[in-house]
Write a structure and sequence with these properties.
single chain; about 550 residues; alpha+beta; four-stranded antiparallel beta sheet; four-stranded mixed beta sheet; globular
């Protein structure tokens, strides 16, 4: 079955590797049901259908994480993205997926040198940069980072994409896309988790991360937004040396976010650092609508004067004005005990998913009751969001990817803040930003703008209505009006009916041949073979061949 969906034979070796890992980690039934195993074995690639004895005792979440690690960079990145899907996975799975690291053995500098020369238009990096350290500062699955200085002495880092990584990732993405399609077809219950959509979002995000110029553009956008804010440092990008396969940024030499004792020794104020960090990220989320989606301690540095530097902008999130308003509505609904307001927000987030609104409303009322007497500043964002996502999971709903990324960012931010300051309260910092969002929403300029858009849309509908009606009736008279009904798996079901009908027809023909040949055998005269009437013998022979074909066809269908 998978052979019909994968057009390039070159993906078969990688598919064999993926299937072998899945089997070893307990996914043999999945491989069989998807038809992958049968297809590979018909292609001459033998699979070993036994689980590894060493992993039999592991928890399913551990098996899943270790399997992703063994599959390599693309699947590790997928696991890191899934770690943000708090609406799909329970906390124990999330904590396990968070252990995935994109670290990889460093390639020798000589392997990356051709890539660097190509990015520098043929120039040797040793002649372009001073003090180029050929030992990488960091080595990840997609890129390696080196330290150097510009000719004017400015300290920089050089981020270089690993050679050949793009082709491998594209092959993995093709296979992921096909497997997601097969999972939706073979496991109807999986459709509520939208595996194809998850893979599509992931592919888009990963391709963006492969483009190091895209990361540089993110850095520049954030730098422009915070140009007047002296409490935060966003690295400068040096565009003369930056492209898709390499970017050059200002080097940040500060205290890493997880070195709290070093921060104390340097005389930094932990509470002030926590306050400033929260204000920076909340400003990104609620006011700018473009935020750093991975503010963990490894991407945060503390600088003299209690300044904060953010690095690694490969993963960012975007929020529309509407989404930011929904977040504000969420918090307002909790504060005002507005069950219907909160229910409306959740239903907007979950889109067209089928939900028992009565049961969901009951759970929302209970949720509101738990926070009814709590002021915004006293709310633990982490617990609130985890309870919300648990409720969404219970109702088999799926949130948009931008929201899951946002929730994960807020939970990470609160954890970082409480590492710095045990008294840190996210709600206290969020309150003024929520008020600002509401002020902007109901400002005269915003109201007039929305009114102008509404009038424009209404005028467009009214002026276009006569034309649309005339076109509709014209098509109706010509008999060209049709209704398209999209039934999932209808094509596959049709193929199954067609094959079953063919087998039934051949079976009836075979039975007819047996009966007819038996009658011919009783009639004397005519040509003979082996002492039997030729036509009777021929009929029995054809019947035997047809029977063998039917048996083989049924056996093959059972293997798929």
């Amino acid at each position: 079955m998978l052979l019909e969906t994968i057009s390039l034979v070159r993906d078969l070796p990688r598919l064999h590797e993926i299937s072998s890992v899945l089997i070893r980690y307990g996914g043999g039934d999945l491989v069989r049901r998807l038809g992958v195993g049968g297809m590979l074995e018909r292609a001459g690639r033998v699979l070993h259908w036994k689980e590894s004895v060493e992993i039999e005792h592991l928890d399913p979440s551990q098996r899943f994480r270790q399997g992703l690690e063994e599959l390599g960079p693309t699947f590790i990145k997928l696991g890191q993205v899934l770690a943000t899907r708090v609406d799909l996975f329970p906390p124990n799975w999330i904590s396990e997926l968070e252990k995935l690291q994109a670290n990889a053995p460093a390639l020798p500098f000589e392997k990356l040198l051709p890539q660097m020369k190509a990015a520098l238009k043929g120039l040797d990096p040793h002649t372009v940069f001073d003090n180029l350290n050929t030992t990488p500062r960091a080595a990840a699955s997609i890129a390696q980072v080196y330290e150097a200085n510009l000719k004017d002495g400015t300290p920089v880092i050089i981020k270089v994409r690993r050679p050949g990584i793009e082709a491998k990732i594209e092959a993995d993405l093709r296979i992921m896309s096909h497997i997601a399609r097969l999972v939706e077809a073979e496991f109807p219950e999986s459709r509520r988790y939208q595996p194809r959509q998850v893979v599509q979002h992931f592919a888009k995000s990963l391709r963006r991360e492969l483009d190091l110029a895209a990361e540089a553009r993110n850095i520049q956008r954030f730098g422009e937004k915070f140009a007047e804010d002296e409490t935060v440092l966003i690295p400068k990008v040096y565009w003369d040396y930056t492209g898709q396969t390499m970017n050059v940024q200002q080097r940040v030499d500060g205290i890493p976010g997880n070195k709290l004792l070093d921060a104390d020794a340097a005389g930094l104020d932990r509470k002030l650092l926590a306050d400033r960090g929260a204000n920076i990220v909340l400003r990104m989320i609620l006011l700018h609508g473009h935020f750093h989606a991975d503010p963990h301690p490894g991407n945060v540095f503390y600088l003299p004067g209690n300044r904060i530097a953010l690095v690694d902008f490969g993963m960012t999130g975007m929020l529309t004005h509407e989404r930011r308003n929904q977040i504000a509505d969420l918090l307002i609904s909790i504060l005002t005990k507005d069950e219907m307001g909160l229910l409306d927000v959740l239903l907007e987030w979950t889109g067209d998913s089928v939900v028992n609104e009565t049961k969901l409303a009951s759970d929302v009322i209970e949720f509101i009751f738990n926070y009814s007497s709590v002021h915004l500043k006293d709310i633990s964002f982490g617990n609130l969001l985890l309870e919300l996502t648990a409720m969404i999971r219970e109702h088999h709903l799926v949130m948009p990817s931008d929201l899951t990324l946002l929730f994960k960012t807020l939970i990470t931010l609160e954890g970082l803040g409480r590492q710095l300051d045990p008294e840190f309260d996210m709600g206290d910092h969020a309150e003024p930003f929520v008020k600002e969002v509401l002020r902007l929403r109901y400002s005269p300029e915003a109201v007039m703008k929305r009114g102008a858009h509404s009038v424009k849309d209404m005028f467009s509908v009214l002026t276009g209505l006569p034309r649309d009606l005339a076109k509709f009736f014209k098509e109706l008279r010509r008999g060209r009006v049709r209704i398209d009904i999209d039934v999932k798996r209808l094509e596959r079901f049709g193929h199954q009916i067609d094959r079953s009908t063919n087998r039934l027809t051949i079976g009836i023909m075979t039975a007819s041949l047996v009966i007819g040949s038996s009658i011919v055998m009783t009639i004397p005269g005519g040509p003979k073979i082996f002492g039997m009437p030729f036509l009777g013998f021929l009929g029995f022979l054809i019947a035997v061949v047809n029977s063998l074909w039917i048996v083989f066809s049924i056996w093959r269908a059972g293997k798929e």
